[in-house]
Amino acid sequence: SPTPTANLNIANLTYRSSGSINGTYAISLSSVNGNISLDNIVLLIIMQNGTVVEENLGMVLNAGKIQVESGTLSINMTGNEPYLSSTTEIIVNLALSPGYISYVALKDIKTGGTVGSALVT
Predict the structure, then answer these.
(1) CATH number for position 19
(2) Percentage of the chain surpassing pLDDT 70?
(3) Residue at 118 is within a domain
(4) pLDDT at residue number 16
């Protein structure tokens, strides 16, 4: 079966306070084409320093929040819908400096295809 598709919308909520940089990004979806369980979706994040992080969204949803990269990156989801939909929202927070990500994609682990991706500007 073909890979479902969706448009990724990324809001850069990064704020600067007292010289520290805290990178916060809200990833939402639109034009979701296909019914796909979050268990079959991997969130791929490439940071500006080249670090690559991949996390299964079903695991993120079940855990409430996942911290990776020695706790410097956290991923959580608002809502409890177990399927990818237009109400899916993923919050990515980097507690490292500079706290920037450059690329985000959602991958379908059943087909190996990319559901959607976006460069972060």
Answers:
(1) 2.60.40
(2) 90
(3) no
(4) 62
Task: Locate 56 and state its tokens.
Answer: 């299964």
Residue-wise pLDDT for 26-73, tens only, equals 999 999 998 899 999 999 999 888 889 999 999 999 998 888 877 788
79, part of any domain? yes
The answer to whether the CB of 15 falls within 8 A of the CB of 22 is yes
Query: In the numeric block, which tokens belong to residue 2?
Result: 């073909």
Q: How far apart are CA 56 and CA 75, in angstroms?
A: 10
For residues 30 and 9, the answer to whether their CB atoms sit within 8 Å is yes
Cβ–Cβ under 8 Å, residues 100 and 14: yes
- DSSP type of residue 37: B
Helix, strand or coil, per DSSP, at residue 61: helix
Q: How far apart are CA 31 and CA 112, in angstroms?
A: 20
